[in-house]
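Q: Structure tokens for this one, please.
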Amino acid sequence: MSPARRPGGARRVALMAIACLLLAMAVQGRIEARAAASAGSAPLLYLPSGRYLHFAALGFDALLADTIYLWSIQYYGNYQIADRYLYLEQIYGQVIAELDPRYLDPYLTGALIMTTEARRPEMALRLLDKGIEHNPQVWILPFEAGFICYDDLRDYQRAAAYFEAALKVPGVPPLVRRFYAEMFNRAGDKRTSLKEWDEIYRTAGDDYVRGVAWNHVHDLTIAVDLADLRAALDLYRARQGKAPRRLQDLAEAGAIGKVPQDPEGRDYLYDPRSGEISYHALPVVAR
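A: Here is the predicted structure, written as tokens:
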């Protein structure tokens, strides 16, 4: 009976193959260190995609993926290698992710390197999208994608979509809901943001979260009220050809259903000469 056909033979062959790959990576690391020290650049040895490595792993895909992932941390932590980001997406998105699609750490670490070091947030989002596709039950992947859209791209609508996806996962932390609510505010949709923050306020399980939510509800209520009053003022002027003497005239003329009061129960400030409508103080969050 040949060694490969003996009991455990396939396992030994696979482990030997992985050991050889690990040895090759270690040798490459030494070559790269020397080359980087002398020339400031080191070419990355070619790694086939995870689909091809799958056959070489003989069922030990997770072990091989873990081996390559540990090597990648060492490789991308070597700042002497000037062109180390050249195959960044291939290593994390086409090798490790295809070998073990449910391995979460490479998605998160790869996205971190792509965003903070390589300055390639769109590349990071492609990697996280692949992780989300294979791990729909994990909230941290869409949350990280949303945070990249929020913090790096300032694309608040896109961020809200990712945060919304995270919220659909059971067991998601309440913090994600607050990020989701605030994205609408950043995108200029203050009514939706007010609705979301009000829901957080009404369902908060502790005083701290309730206080944070109240601050946002307070300021967003003012922003929505002032927008409604100014729109009613413009409508009144268009109909009457002049500004109203007082805000109550807006309701009496049908320009607005009801004149709102501020969160403290006071009338908003109105100057009939300039037509300016304002709140009597600074917003709470800005204080």
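A few notes: The CA atoms of residues 2 and 276 lie 91 Å apart. Confidence is low (pLDDT under 50) at residues 1-7, 30-42.
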